[in-house]
Description:
Elements lengths: L9 H14 L2 H13 L6 H10 L3 H9 L6 H13 L3 H20 L3 H9 L6 H18 L2 H14 L4 H13 L3 H14 L7 E6 L2 E6 L4 H18 L5 E4 L3
Parallel strand pairs: 2-3
Antiparallel strand pairs: 1-2
Helix pairs in contact: 1-2, 1-3, 3-4, 3-5, 4-5, 5-6, 6-7, 6-8, 7-8, 8-9, 8-10, 9-10, 10-11
Keywords: Repeat
InterPro entries: E_motif, PPR_At4g14850-like_plant, PPR_rpt, TPR-like_helical_dom_sf
GO molecular function, one term: RNA binding
Amino acid sequence: MQIRRVKGDKFTAVTLLTGSAQSGALEQGKWIHRYIDENGIKIDAPALIEMYAKCGCIEKSLEIFNGLREKDAACWTSIICGLAKNGKASKAVELLEHYACLVDLLGRAGLLDEAEEMIERVPSENNEIMIPLYGALLSACRIHGNVEMGERVAKRLADIESSGSSVHTLLANTYAFADRWEDVTKVRRKMKDLGVRKVPGSSSIEIDGMSMSLLTVTEINIVLHRLMKQLLGLKEKGMERENLVLIGL
């Protein structure tokens, strides 16, 4: 192309960068990078990030990533995967937490398809990376009542972490929000068959100097009624206790 004085465009540049990345030709990739800068060719940053990462020059990938004013899903995916493949697991996990936040924000905003698309761009070889991403999306499915996607995401999570209670609980809650109580029962039965137990949530309150821990139960009105009754009984008897634990009221 240079001999014939044909100027390359962004498509040519990306193709050459991809070839350099696949063959591990770092010096050739650097030359293409300089050519891009010298000729003012605008290309997508992930192509450069991936080229340097696949050629073992992960620090240059980080330099390019950190220098970006705006980072889209492709940029995040490229740098996280590049770090993981170059043995920078701790840094990859650090950036992954930010990535998971993006998935969570999209999910909470109701942009479930966009959130799922972001996750699909991440290679699934590392299960530890996928669990928080799918967990955030499944939680969003529950909030917005998207049962179809919730079932799909829950299956993927179950394949990764079948012994965890959170995936089953979130799926059951998704069914409950959609008034699909038969499916809720099926999930609960499956949890029982698998020996999966949900650890009940708890909260603490302080009344008249007494610290109290209250475990979450289904019939909250009954719990509150018995709690108030017990508190009134304690005050009448003049009893003072630093800690009162109510379990299974």
